[in-house]
From TrEMBL:
Family: Belongs to the pex2/pex10/pex12 family.
Functional note: Component of a retrotranslocation channel required for peroxisome organization by mediating export of the PEX5 receptor from peroxisomes to the cytosol, thereby promoting PEX5 recycling.
Protein name in UniProt: Peroxisome assembly protein 12
Annotated metabolic or biological route of this protein: Protein modification; protein ubiquitination
Membrane protein topology class: Multi-pass membrane protein
Organism name: Psilocybe cubensis
Lineage of producing organism: Eukaryota, Fungi, Dikarya, Basidiomycota, Agaricomycotina
PANTHER family: PEROXISOME ASSEMBLY PROTEIN 12, PEROXISOME ASSEMBLY PROTEIN 12 PEROXIN-12
Length: 371
């Protein structure tokens, strides 16, 4: 591992593992925020239900504010700043003699408005478009097996995919092309990462060259400059009145809140992941907890077959009692017996009862079994 972390004569060049770690932190923010909003939306649906339904837009707006603040104040995105990285304007010529002559942090490294908005395009805009494309692909039934797709689509999805208008043709083309385009993009980024790992590329993402920046580790000069800036902010001023101090505190509150996210958001992510593990069925903590209401209630006994119903063999596990073949797309009736989806649908639609127990059943009572 030391071979891949060794950057030769440039100690401020980050390793690929640091860059991927900050990307993983950024990817964890959206599901964590969505989980928190979903929990609070159950208690306050009047105020938060619309926000949860438009979560991608809400998250993009929040990250636009956060990332813009960190790019302007720290020359880095939120995740990059958390891992001790920064963005700088890429110099045309960089030599040790030039660094020694300038001393400290060169003024030309600070991001301009052009680099900030280009960075926001790829930090916020591109992930938002990819998330919406993935949602649209899943809305059209993408990623579903053919045996489920033919029988599980509702009328709206079938109409959307069979429409002969321009929109219908676009949906079909998008559904067919999206998996290949997404896979090609991921493969392209993987090859670029490998090239960066072996010093064949100057940056780990191809669009950083177009933005005109590169990503560096924070050096001693960066920490010294941050310390001096913090000392200037807290310099004592005895002439300020109470009203002036309160006014300055209110003006600084948004900045202080955004800067505190550097510690609050990762802590919240860790806490949410801990709760997911704690309440997961496979967690060891579940074995330590004892139900205050006594032992678990056993499942109900299976209903016996009706003498006039179709014969049912208890030893024929995984065989549909109607077609006598292996169950395809398993579906349960209210009686508890499992059949093929097509067999159960046809039987209930015609006779409105379970073919084994002859108990009443309706089409809307069919339940697919994920096995």
């Amino acid at each position: 591992m030391e071979f891949f972390n060794d950057n030769g004569i440039d100690p401020l060049k980050p390793s690929l593992f640091e860059l991927l770690a900050q990307e993983q932190l950024r990817d964890l923010l959206q599901p964590a925020l969505k989980y928190v909003l979903a929990v609070f939306a159950q208690r306050y649906p009047r105020y938060l239900l619309r926000v949860v339904n438009r979560h991608e837009e809400f998250y993009a707006l929040v990250m636009l504010i956060v990332e813009r603040h960190y790019l302007r104040s720290h020359n880095a995105s939120f995740a990059e700043n958390f891992y001790g990285l920064k963005r700088r304007r890429r110099p045309f010529i960089e030599t040790e003699r030039a660094k020694a002559a300038v001393g400290g942090i060169p003024s030309g490294e600070k991001l301009r408005s052009q680099e900030i908005w280009r960075s926001l395009l790829f930090l916020v805009g591109v992930p938002y478009l990819r998330a919406k494309a993935q949602d649209y692909f899943e809305e059209l039934g993408g990623g579903v097996g053919s045996d489920i797709l033919d029988e599980g689509l509702d009328a709206r999805q079938v109409q959307a995919l069979t429409d002969q208008s321009f929109k219908g043709r676009f949906r079909r083309v998008f559904k067919a092309a999206y998996p290949y385009l997404n896979t090609s993009l991921e493969l392209w980024l993987l090859l670029w990462n490998i090239a960066y790992l072996f010093d064949k590329k100057p940056s780990y993402r191809p669009w950083l060259s177009w933005i005109g920046v590169d990503i560096r580790r924070l050096g001693i000069e960066d920490f010294r400059a941050a310390s001096l800036a913090a000392q200037k902010k807290i310099s004592p001023d005895t002439k300020r009145t109470l009203t002036t101090r309160l006014k300055q505190l209110l003006l600084r509150s948004p900045r202080l809140l955004l800067d505190s996210l550097r510690l609050l958001l990762p802590t919240a992510i860790f806490f949410i992941k801990f709760l997911e593990w704690w309440y997961s069925p496979g967690s060891p903590a579940r074995a330590l907890s004892v139900s205050p209401q006594g032992p678990a209630i056993p499942p109900p006994s299976m209903l016996p077959p009706h003498p006039q119903g179709i014969p049912f063999d208890k030893t024929a596990y995984g065989i549909c009692p109607i077609c006598k073949k292996a169950i395809n797309n398993a579906t349960a009736l209210p009686s508890g017996y499992v059949f093929c989806y097509r067999c159960a649908y046809d039987q209930v639609e015609k006779h409105e009862k379970c073919p084994v127990t002859l108990l009443p059943a309706r089409v809307w009572q069919l339940r697919k079994v994920l096995i």
